[in-house]
Amino acid sequence: MSAHTLVIVNPASGSGTAGRRIPELERLLAAHVVDFSLVRTQGPGHAEQLAREGALAGARRIAIAGGDGTVSEALSGLLPLALAQPPELGLLPLGSGRDFARGLGLGNDLAASVQRLARGRLRTVDAGRVVCCGPDGTERIRHFLNITSFGVSGESTLWVQQRGRRGRRGRASYLQSGVVGLLRYRSPQVAIAIDGRPAHRGRLMLAAVANGRYFGGGMHVAPHAQIDDGLFDVVIVDGMTKLQALACFSQLLRGRHLRRPDVRVLRGRQVEIEADAPIWLEADGEPLGTPPARLSLLPRALTLCGL
User: Fold this and answer.
1) Distance (Å, rounded) from C-alpha 59 to C-alpha 77?
2) Which has the closest alpha carbon to 114: 38, 177, 204?
3) Could you tell me the domains of the chain?
4) pLDDT at residue 166, rounded to an integer
5) How far apart are CA 156 and CA 282, in angstroms?
């Protein structure tokens, strides 16, 4: 297999920051990575195609320069391939939230990220697969590395997508979308089963099926999740008033919500979701679709490089 490193850049990540930093990224790669090529995504779903084509062409490593959503797209191109030696996945976090990288203790320094990629430290980790009903009514399949959630968080990401990601950047934009999502959300009746056992039935504010620890631009939703333990941490927040939800979200930022009686954490490998009204799921910050949905943990699904 070639020692080649394919770098996939999403120029739109980080409200366009990734695109503006491509010249800097190319200089850093030229200084530290022996054999690489860089390609830019052209729109939603393109990272999935580029990752699949790169893997089939024999790339030893595929590095994603973008956000968690771009990584999720790339996974959906890589994991269905039955390759004897699948490529390693490198992370060059350039998105707005960088939640998965935050959970690994990785900073946002681009030079340090490229140097870690060149050193090539490896870790085999789990991933997730979600099957749900897409916006057009057909089955939709997506893979994720960090977190899939639904409830207020799904409504928030849908609003961000609908407005074309315009407006403020950074933590303020996530707080804004969270408040708007809360105001729009109608808290339907939801049924959740974990490994075939009923886990929740009733009104729901939020649920996160977590491989990683953070989502929503730094909310510490699953403080005890491990990316290589073979289990999801499923964080369930029961139905509550909007005022109670605002208090809960402030605790989420610091990982203190687990003390609340209306918050539970369960663990398992299969999660099934049904709802009596449409409720949006999001995976790694991208809206996907609605229940019925099934999430499956894929143990030791891929090898990360550059940690």
Assistant:
1) 13
2) 38
3) 5-120 (3.40.50.10330), 127-300 (2.60.200.40)
4) 44
5) 9
Calpha distance 258→251 (Å, rounded): 9
End-to-end CA distance of the chain: 22
d(CA 119, CA 92): 13
CB atoms within 10 A of CB 87: 27
**DSSP readout, 171-210?**
HHHHHHHHHHHHHH----EEEEEETTEEEEEEEEEEEEEE
Q: Provide the pLDDT confidence category of residue 175 given band limits of 50, 70 and 90.
A: low
**Identity of residue 131:** V
User: Per-residue pLDDT for 151 more than 70?
Assistant: yes
Mean pLDDT computed over 78-104: 88
Characterise 181 by phi-psi region: left (phi > 0), alpha (psi -120 to 50), beta (else): alpha
pLDDT exceeds cutoff 80 at 181: no
Placement of tokens 């609003």 in the chain: 159
pTM of the predicted protein model: 0.91
Q: What is the 3-state secondary structure (H, E, C) of 225-261?
A: CCCCCCCEEEEEEECCCHHHHHHHHHHHCCCCHHHCC
Dig out the tokens for 54 from the structure.
């790169």
**Kind and range of the H or E run holding 91:** strand 88-93
What pLDDT, on a 0 to 100 scale, did the predictor assign at position 232? Answer: 98
| Other residues' Cβ atoms within 10 Å of the Cβ of residue 46 | 17
| Phi then psi dihedrals of residue 13, to 5 deg | -60, 150
Give the pLDDT of residue 261: 92
CA dihedral 5, 14, 231, 49 (to 10 degrees): -50
